[in-house]
Design brief:
By secondary structure, the chain is an alpha+beta fold. Helix content is 36%, strand content 13%. It has 13 helices and 10 strands. It has helices at residues 3-17, 32-43, 57-61, 63-66, 101-120, 136-142, 190-194, 212-218, 241-244, 264-268, 271-276, 279-285, 295-308, and strands at residues 22-27, 72-79, 91-92, 125-128, 147-148, 154-155, 163-170, 200-201, 205-206, 235-237. The chain has a 4-stranded antiparallel beta sheet with strand order 1-2-7-4, sandwiched between helices. Strand 8 and strand 9 form a beta hairpin. The chain starts with a helix and ends with a helix.
Length: 309
């Protein structure tokens, strides 16, 4: 067995030991097609107020510029689908039910790299968890892990789409997986038809500036645009509608990550309890939660918007 084969097999086995559900490897190359799509998406203003999406365009489309000397892009998937169900009348996207995934996955990714340095030898590289200009879903597809659905999510045939994606860009020479070539969405348009704000377009483009997650998390304005009134249902933070209606998510299985165990308040607080929650209590309860990203002020804004609807 060649060193490339040995290292690749070791990394994939170690990824599972460190809490990841899937691992795939692709060659570090320039993403020409993705560069064209990203440029068009930005030109049409579909990133809304997310100005950071315009930054580091060259780094987003070529990992060798992000990590000099890069030869391989390792993609890791981690399941976050919960076994529990929310009891309150306000909805929070499932990814935000437990501890902030950035912290959890970064901890596991760092542990994986540290062990790899000892087992394989010193190598160069950087790990990323939704924190740098990396086109994670494109690399996941190139690594053979799944396809990008019409709703913009990576979908796996075995377990659906409730996964976090981490990326390790390295100068290791590894054995590359075959890209996932087929799109199993076919003629299905359930996510398109179900999207409350019409953010999912028929040409496999998602208008980020019209997504409920954008309005309730990314948008920092004091008010959500009035024209969106009545469209959010009960979604207070994020939105899972396009994943809930996706046929492939009938294969989703509950995760086994203790850090993703739902915070009790996420599952049980109703509108009245949320409205009565003080800023001090919010900061204490959601200190390690993705909800802290919207801050207390943002949550209050979202509550008021839903109340008016």
């Amino acid at each position: 067995m060649s060193p490339q084969e040995t290292h690749t097999r070791w990394l994939k086995e170690a990824a599972r030991r460190h809490g990841f559900d899937h691992c795939g490897v692709a060659a570090a190359v320039f993403l020409e097609e993705d560069a064209r799509r990203l440029e068009s998406w930005l030109h049409q203003g579909m990133h809304g107020s997310m100005g950071y999406m315009e930054n580091y365009f060259d780094l987003r489309t070529d990992p060798r510029k992000l990590v000099p000397g890069a030869r391989s892009v390792i993609t890791l998937l981690k399941n976050y689908y919960p076994a529990e169900a929310q009891q309150g009348d306000l909805k929070i996207a499932r990814y935000a039910w437990g501890e902030d995934y950035h912290t959890v996955i970064r901890r596991q990714l760092n542990a994986l790299v540290e062990e790899a340095q000892g087992a394989i030898g010193q190598f160069g590289g950087r790990g990323f968890v939704d924190s740098a200009p990396v086109l994670e879903r494109s690399w996941a597809r190139r690594s053979g892990l799944g396809w990008v659905g019409k709703n913009g999510n990576l979908i796996t045939k075995e377990s659906g789409s409730f996964f976090f994606i981490a990326t390790l860009i390295t100068d290791l020479d590894l054995v590359y997986d075959d890209p996932f070539a087929k799109d199993f969405c076919g003629s299905c348009r359930r996510c398109i038809d179900a999207c409350p704000t019409g953010a999912i377009l028929p040409d496999k483009t998602v208008n980020g500036s019209q997504c409920i997650s954008y309005f309730t998390i990314e948008l920092k304005d004091e008010l959500i645009p009035a024209e969106q009134q009545g469209k959010f249902g009960n979604w207070m933070f994020g939105c899972d509608v396009c994943q809930e209606v996706c046929p492939w998510n009938r294969f989703s299985k509950p995760h086994s990550e203790a850090a993703f165990a739902p915070i009790s308040e996420v599952l049980h607080l109703g509108t009245r309890e949320w409205e009565a929650l003080s800023e001090e209590a919010f900061k204490k309860i959601f200190k390690r939660s993705p909800l802290s990203r919207a801050k207390y002020k943002g949550i209050r804004r979202n509550l008021n918007f839903l109340k008016r609807g």
